[in-house]
Write a structure and sequence with these properties.
By secondary structure, this protein is of the alpha+beta class. The protein folds into 2 domains: about 80 residues, Ubiquitin-like (UB roll); about 130 residues, no CATH class. It is built from 7 helices and 5 strands. It has a 5-stranded mixed sheet with strand order 2-1-5-3-4, sandwiched between helices. Helix 5 packs across helix 7. The longest helix is centred in the middle third of the chain and has 16 residues. The chain binds iron/sulfur cluster (SF4) (2 copies). One iron/sulfur cluster binds next to loops.
């Protein structure tokens, strides 16, 4: 038997026993999924596919069964906030080293989600396609890609110019420390990084704290440490 589901105001019909995800696909309103692999895995572990029902409940689309007349919204403020929290949780245990990640070049679902939901942590390097050129830091240039927030689609390094940080700094301490180790191992000095960083960041309310974190991270990296 087919049941009627209202997805963002659009009516679709799906077989009874199917999940909301099937109705969303039929309506052409996709939601992000990370842990869903069809019949191989559908345990609703990641919660990226949360949607809001008309009674205000948030439910995972990949596991919640459809029923006749069910009303679903996929992009409400509560849904976006919940998904943002999910991405933050995932990233909180993610070892971010985008400058040397083999997925660099756009094939990173976490980058896409972090950018879509404005989650802190992922740097410009994550999407730098490089077009076959060497990384600018590896060539000794103080590119701010490792410590600048992703989301600009990296036009500068893609065109052979260093990132000068116009999108704003990454402030996660572990990312700053790992990025600093990357700078140090390629001979890029703190003064050069700060010279570039001061252009856009000097007026930021957290600039002094950021500068102190970078100084501390450089000191640590020059004294030896992990990575
Ligand atoms: S060129 Fe700059 S943005 Fe691209 S990977 Fe290297 S450091 Fe990162
Ligand atoms: S300078 Fe700005 S636009 Fe250019 S790569 Fe860096 S953040 Fe993106």
């Amino acid at each position: 038997m087919m049941v009627r589901v209202i997805v963002n105001g659009k009516e679709v019909h799906v077989p009874e026993g199917e999940t909301i995800l099937t109705a969303l696909k039929k309506a052409g309103d996709a939601v992000p999924t990370l842990c869903f692999f069809g019949h191989m895995y559908r345990e609703a572990s990641c919660r990226m596919c949360l949607v809001e029902l008309s009674n205000g409940k948030l439910v995972p689309a990949c596991a919640y069964p459809v029923s006749d007349g069910l009303e679903v919204r996929t992009d409400t403020p509560r849904v976006r906030e919940a998904r943002r929290t999910v991405v933050e949780f995932i990233l909180s245990i993610h070892r971010i080293r985008c400058w040397s990640c083999p997925r660099k070049g756009g094939n990173c679902e976490l980058l896409k989600l972090a950018t879509a939901y404005w989650v802190e942590g992922i740097p410009v390097c994550s999407s730098c396609p490089l077009y076959g050129r060497d990384c600018l830091v590896v060539k000794g240039e103080p590119c701010l890609g490792p410590i600048t927030l992703a989301g600009c689609s990296d036009p500068c390094p893609s065109n052979g110019s260093p990132c000068i940080g116009c999108r704003g700094p990454v402030t996660r301490k572990d990312v700053l420390e790992a990025a600093t180790q990357f700078y140090v191992s390629n001979g890029v000095e703190l003064k050069d990084v700060l010279e570039v960083a001061s252009m856009f960041w000097e007026g930021l309310p957290n600039y002094d704290a950021l500068k102190a974190s970078l100084e501390e991270a450089f000191k640590k990296a020059l004294g030896g440490g992990e990575d």
